[in-house]
Amino acid sequence: MYQARIKITLFYLISALFILLNAFFLVKKHSMIINALPIAFAIVLLAVFALDKLLYLVVFFTPLSLPLSELVRGLGFDMFLPTEPLLFGILLIFILKCFANRKFDRDILTHPISLAIYFSLFWMLVTSLTSTMPLVSLKFLLSRIWFIVGFYLLTAKLFESAKNVEKYIWLYTIPLMIVIFYSTYRHLGYGLWDKQAAHFVMDPFYNDHTAYGAAIAMYLPFLFGFSFTKIYSPWVRVFVRISLGILMMGLILSYARAAWLSMFAVMVVWVIMRLKIRFKHLFVTFIVSLSLILVFQNPILMYLERNNTESSANLAEHVSSMSNISSDASNLERLNRWSCAIRMFADKPVFGYGPGTYMFQYAPYQLTGDRTIISTNSANGGNAHSEYLGPMAESGFLGPISVLILFAVVIFSGIHAYSRTNDKRLKTLVMGALLGLMTYYIHGIMNNFLDTDKLSVPFWGFTAIIVAIDIQTRKTVRSKTLTKN
Q1: What pTM did the predictor assign?
Q2: Local structure of 66: helix, strand or coil
Q3: Is 146 exposed, middle or buried (0-12, 13-18, 19+ CB in 10 A)?
């Protein structure tokens, strides 16, 4: 009753404020603002009365969101519109609701994955306070928090229903297909197999073809699963297979080698999971393989240096160029960035330079011999190109450790949730989420995109799927055990 009164009061206050603002801007003859007010009013109403609908709206607009720098030139800061302002609003509402209700789902808050996230955020806060650029680091931390609140905590609660999970997947996939059509249409103008055009045809929706490829790769495991799961009707499976074909086309034309490699790797992981190979056998295989690489590292490096295949429009040559560390500018620049991150870590091994600061601080660490034709000293040159080495340079030795702990706990929880349930729908969803995340974990060796909404939606959303299904399957097993006793 008390909450109902609050909602009614808020409704009348917002309505009165809207009328007053409308009248004010009408008198001032600001027609554009007047036209935008109904949209703003609708968003506020959604935030107050249907926060889940607002969250779905953010997910839908994420593939279509535009950087502010594309709309207004010369600003000293940037953000994606309309998603990031909405996420900041969702964060504020979440905090207010937590204070008002003084509770949130305990199972989600105390889940091992949540604890790993808290540790990561805590260390990010510490290194933000010791940062060489505190304002940059605190802004980076704030954006990470609103991604986690919106796409992890709130969605994990929504995902108590499997239908909400499927809705979340399609709300990103459908606009992503729109971007693929847009990119392919532009690509046709340059020639469909023009590799250079593949770097920018998705602009302004995705500012990099590797981020575009990574997003597509993360959703492909779900579409593979949906297309072969018989719980869905034949017509649904036909639509899914058409969508699967569109995403496959987008992935190929992205020319994102890291995304291709990640898809191949998760196919191997899928086979391992289907064959139910025991962890100790995999661990022994990994240790033996790592030992062989260390023993024969010099011959391996000599072999890689002999590969002078450049990235090109020829798909076979483009795949072969992944291991070219002698002449491929993209690969050499990535090695340059990694070397800078390692040198930065050597200078500040405990606290690092501060979250989000790599791109502003790495320039002095470039050696003349490592620089390439695409090297730059400016902050627009991008980051460390690694989800592991970047945190190491920015947050010291605990940075990559916190990342690895999170990834390990997610994989462990996902595998156990998958093996614990016999529900085909839940198995499909948890397998899709786990394999989708693993494409990013592998891709993260060569790139990092979690500072953007484009990859944060699937990354934290898929993590929430695993948490929700893990909690649900644990409760099911517990109830069956109590029933038997």
Answers
A1: 0.86
A2: strand
A3: buried
